[in-house]
Amino acid sequence: MTRLSVNLNKIALLRNARAGTTPSVVDAARTCIEAGAHGITLHPRPDERHATPKDVYAIAALLERARQVAPGVELNVEGNPFHGLLEIVRRAQPAQCTLVPDDPAARTSDHGWDLARDGERLAPVVAELRAAGIRVSLFMDAASRELDAVKALGADRIELYTEPYAAAHGGPDSGATLARFAAAADRARSLGLGVNAGHDLNLANLGDLCAIPAGVDEVSIGHALIADALALGLGNAVRVYLGRISSVGTRH
Fold first, then answer.
1. Is 78 a catalytic residue?
2. pLDDT value of position 109
3. pTM of whole model > 0.90?
4. Among the listed residues 90, 1, 82, 92, the one whose alpha carbon sits nearest the alpha carbon of residue 41
5. CA atoms within 13 A on the CB side of 131
6. Which of the residues 38, 43, 50, 169 is marked catalytic?
């Protein structure tokens, strides 16, 4: 079965908009764990516009405390290892580190690694993380011809960058695009690599991707899941607030 890691960057972004502590990333992580999520993902960027190093350390501590009741829940820390990520990962010791080639100024991750260019720099990073017992996943495009190089670097998994799949889903190119992702997953499996996936996955397109023959070990979902949480939970929040107001009114 595909495991779900919930990316909580959007919770941190909302908190940061008011420079306070609400909503709490730790409380959100606890809710996700209690609901059955298999993991928590954080992507701390250098400008700290959403998840911060403190968030990573707090979630690592939460999962350590929760190990007795939720032993299989993992922390996945993702980001560019050449922009300060490694200092955070060394301290947090997550179960998995997903290495992503995003520019510090990028709004979001938008492409996979070019290993012909960056492989030599990545090699010692991968070696250090694996020596520390941290599973390493490299963010890769499904069209990449460099999956053999991922294996040669010693990484454990790839994370397929799924924005092209999500953009094509339901359209005339949907089948061909899904087939391309399925082929990439097949190739990764043949090399002994695990297969993760992430970016723009949602309730509409998730099922088809997870059903590819090679299977998907883990999906990391943040934006769509948090947006759906507003839709699925906003009405309940309004009702709770109305109940609180109503209970005050009955005391007068």
1. yes
2. 75
3. yes
4. 92
5. 7
6. 43
Q: Catalytic residue at 146?
A: no
CB atoms within 10 A of CB 52: 18
Q: What does the alpha-carbon distance between residue 209 and residue 166 come to, in Å, rounded to a whole number?
A: 10
3-class DSSP state of 156: coil
- Residue ranges and CATH numbers for the domains of the chain are 3-223 (3.20.20.70)
| Contact assessment for residue 177 and residue 164, using Cβ atoms and an 8 Å cutoff | yes
- Written as six digits, the tokens of 245 are 């107001």
Task: Give the 3-state secondary structure of residue 220.
Answer: strand
Give residue-wise pLDDT tens across range 180-209: 999 999 999 999 999 999 999 999 999 999
Catalytic residue selected from 38, 50, 74, 78 = 78
Specify the pLDDT at position 251: 52
- What is the 3-class SS of 173-193, one letter each residue? CHHHHHHHHHHHHHHHHHCCC
User: What pLDDT sits at residue 47?
Assistant: 93
Question: Does residue 223 have an active-site annotation?
Answer: no
End-to-end, the C-alpha distance of the chain in Å comes to 54
Query: Do β-strands 194-198 and 218-221 pair in parallel, antiparallel, or remain unpaired?
Result: parallel
pLDDT score of 116 more than 70: yes
SS3 97: strand
Neighbours of 165 (CB within 10 A): 22
**Cα–Cα dist 105/28, whole Å:** 26
Average confidence score pLDDT of the chain: 94
